[in-house]
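Need the bound structure for magnesium ion, inputs here:
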Amino acid sequence: MKFCLAGNPNSGKTTLFNALTGSTAHVGNWPGVTVDKREGTYKKLSEKIHIVDLPGIYSMSPYTPEEVVSRNFVLDENPDVIINIVDATNLERNLYLTTQLLETDIPLVIALNMMDVVEKNGDKINLQQLEKAFGVPVVSISAIKKDNIDKLMQVAYETSKKTRKGYSVISKTEYADTFEKFVRLYDNENCKNKIFHAVKMFEADELEVSGYPSVASAALKVKENIDSTEFDGDFEALVADLRYRFISLHMSSVIKKLKKQEVSRSDKADKVLTHRVWGIPLFLLIMFAVFHFTFSEDFLFLNKLFGVEVSGDFWLTFFQLEEAGAVPSPGVWLQSWMGWLTGSLIDLVRGWLSNSPVWLSGLLCDGLLSGLDAIFSFLPQILLLFLFLSIMEDSGYMARAAFIMDRAFRKFGLSGKAFMPLLMCFGCGVPGVMATKTLENEKERRLTMMIAPFFSCGAKLPIWLAFAGIMFAGQYGDLVVFSIYLAGIVVAVIAAMILKFTVMKGETPPFIMELPTYHLPQFKNLMIRLWDKLKHFLYKAATIIAGSIVVLWFLSNFGFAFWNGMVSIEESMLGQIGNVIKYVFYPLGFADGADGWKFVVASITGLLAKEQVVSSLEVLAGAAGFEALLGGLSVAASYSFMLFNLLAVPCMAMVAAVHGEMASGKRTWQAIGFWIATAYVVSMVAYWSIRFWWIGVCLLAVIIAALTYMYCKNKKRLQKGVC
Ligand code: GDP
Ligand code: MG
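Answer from helper R.:
Posting the output first, comments after.
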């Protein structure tokens, strides 16, 4: 048996799907998280039930990819029952889709979700009235608390055994007779769900018209006899209106709200958090707080502001500090513990291997273990940052961030809808690119993929952390990391604007998004996400990274005549090659000096996977050590190096994902070229601007002038009413 879950975005479909199937699909507190359908099984009934989680939709019209996926599934794949998840806190809006699902002949059950919230608000919903109005069973559930979900399945199972005939709200209105004629037009067509098709034909739905051309021409004749002046000949709008009339007719008897007038707590919070002026500064402040908590060496500015220092043997050991210093943030503290742990482990292995051949201890200790150590010691901070990002997403704040950004971006001709997939790229670019499926507009989609890698993903974090601990004597670690994240956003915005005004011209589609109500993040959701991240990280460390460390170690310890034994790193294969290609990177600053080629090689290995950069540097650092190597770079060169790695090709997985979505080799190559060119130009500009401040000032002036120009141009267009 096959049951499908259909409902609006954010109504809790995936939560219910996970609860029923024991799966761990991504739950997100904003629309558009599920684009493809997802499948699983429910085993608690006498028969095994196949469950399909459809993407969230507001309507069965053919305007977005989600709508098409859901509509095709419902019409073509013959599910035994549709479970329509309805967010009970937003009943009227959600039932709009229900009126459309009713038009199919498929058995239907309404699952009234989020009843925990309804009860907490003190509202009352009359289930019997709702059942009577829609003529289908209604079960009240809470997907998150798993309340009543087995009962829902039981009812759905029983319902699936009965047949149902499609019903349209039009048949109770003044258009009933006309509609009857539409239904009869399908008498000679061999198709199921006739009522559904008739309604779609009445709406002049484009998929329906092209699918049944002969019915369509007959339908036009019927329509000639309808007086359509009242609704301007827009039959789709007419039907929408009839649906809402039907819903509001029944609403008064179905729902009794306790506090009608009172502004909800969510709305109150939004007054502040999405404020016209304060919205963006608040967003930046929240982000900074997160970075500070995770990366700062001077937690709560206790040292800078109040001169607090850590001293005493116990505290020094507790915070893993060698000498008295500021109180570290929890993230830094965890990192030092992890560093201590992995460091001791390496010493232990080194001890065991003290009598073995040089190459073996070299390969294991200086190669493999130090390389892995370099990225592993950052694991606590990576997880901590993800915990915060997940909390922001699950609570509903990230959706606001997209909303605030949209308001700002629209002024420059960009849409905020793209911001949601882009925010996902802070985690990993691959799901971010997948999520661009939610953008209807093809150009907007391609544009979004082009700038997606500029958002700093988790794999790049170890690079920033390595520098954060060394630049400015580790004093401003939080600011260093924060500035890189911001730089990524700024470059992405500027790049998007340039593309938009040159090669990817087009109108910005409107951004309509419902802001979900705030709620406390679910502990389980957070843990699922952290676990996913950890799994991914461990898997990569054990495979690609460990493998390439071994290769890199070999290339950097043996010359082209490798049978002659180990050589110094300068004479190694990698050293010789690196010393040639480094000239290409000279203008970027970091290729300078005796160690310059090492940064070049590390950046190149980073094109395969960004975790590689730090482990490569660790392997290449040799006896002098990692910190000495990084410390050799000036501030300007450090930034240039970080920016290059931030903006260049992120990893092969991302290239594959973009290739899959763009479905064109040429476009994929264009994207790769674009990323490398942007990385090169931005790093070069940053390097020279930091070294000579007047270059920076001139540049800033040019950027501001360009932004103002685009703003004014766009404003004129908006005034002309083009958008
Ligand atoms: P989908 O877009 O329909 O797949 O919705 P999701 O399953 O991703 O859920 C959207 C948000 O609603 C998530 O933050 C869930 O934690 C939350 N949610 C889902 N079901 C319930 C519920 O029964 N009660 C409450 N309070 N929240 C829920
Ligand atoms: Mg979902």
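Comments: The two ends are 47 Å apart (CA to CA). The chain has 33 helices and eight strands.
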